Amino acid sequence: MGLVEHAIEFRDRFIICLVAVVLAMVAGFFLTGPALDIIRQPIETLQQARGSKVSINFSNVTTAFDLRMQMALTLGIVIASPVWLYQLWMFLMPGLKKNERRYALGFLGAAIPLFLGGVVVGFWVMPRIVEVMTGFAPVEDTVFYDAKTYYSFVLTLCIAVGVAFVVPVILVMLNFAGVLAGRTILRGWRVAVVASAFFAALATPAADVLSMFLLMLPMVALYFIAGGIARLNDRRREKRIAKQDAELEAELSSGTATPIAGE
Fold first, then answer.
1. Within a 10 A sphere around the Cβ of 210, how many other Cβ atoms?
2. pLDDT-derived band of residue 93, with 50, 70 and 90 as boundaries?
């Protein structure tokens, strides 16, 4: 396809993703109450340790509504993840043959659990980050967290880690499509480690090294697993090609091969 065709396809798939997220956002709005209770748990734990000197504050009349809408959007992105992950895959791989479209099912089967798993990992690390950062405030003082700022931090962390967990699946699918060799993936391990460390450092406070490593290690592990799967697929492909070449050579030597036009 030309540049214009790619732009049209991107527009169409973006519209599908947007509609899916908006519809999921409506459902997500009704889940904001339970989600708020879950995200508030680290603050309640700190309140038990520090008394009532830690609290979440709604500093504006419209803050509560704005926060609900923000959370509904985030939940909508999570709920609609099967749709936009599929659209992303089909946009990246427009030239697949019909028999190769089954890779899309494999992509979704791996990407969706990893995305949701990344969201869970981000949420699992979040209380540790909140605890460490709150610990810098003197016990005698009261810590007021702006509601929108606090929830934005939690939701951004969870979504970012979820997306990061999907990257290795994209690498594997590019390998299965014949675009990227497994050897190339494994050779770039140094860049992957540095990129994972950089991402983990941005997602976690500089003072919380433990949380940084807790995020970094599964990302690096997933990268090497992706490289290993891609390398195994390359070997399988090489064996299949070698077998086909051997069969073709045997046919040529026995004179049973179909002559090629022009020879």
1. 12
2. low
Q: Pick 135 or 98 by higher pLDDT.
A: 135
State how far the Cα of 156 lies from the Cα of 138, in Å rounded to an integer. Answer: 27
Here the tokens at position 116 are 């949701």
Measured distance CA(43)–CA(175) in Å, rounded = 44
Please tell me whether residue 242 adopts helix, strand or coil conformation: helix
Q: Tell me the Cα Rg of the chain.
A: 25
Neighbouring residues of 165: CB distance < 8 A, sequence distance ≥ 6: 114, 115, 117, 118, 121, 218, 219, 222
How would DSSP label each residue in 8-44? Answer: HHHHHHHHHHHHHHHHHHHHHHTTHHHHHHHHTHHHH
DSSP state of 82: H
Q: Which two tokens stand for residue 127?
A: 């209380």
| Cα gap 201→129, rounded to integer Å | 12
Residue 162 contacts residue 199 (beta carbons within 8 Å): no
What tokens were used for 257?
């091969």
For 94, the token pair is 């427009």
Strand-pairing partners, residue 57, are: 146
- pLDDT for 101: 62
Query: CA-to-CA distance for 50 and 195, rounded, in angstroms?
Result: 37
| E strands present in the chain | 54-57, 143-146
Please report how the helices 147-176 and 209-254 are oriented relative to each other, as an axis angle in degrees rounded to 10: 20
Span 211-235, pLDDT tens digits: 788 888 888 898 899 889 888 888 8
Cα 151 to its chain centre, rounded Å, is 20
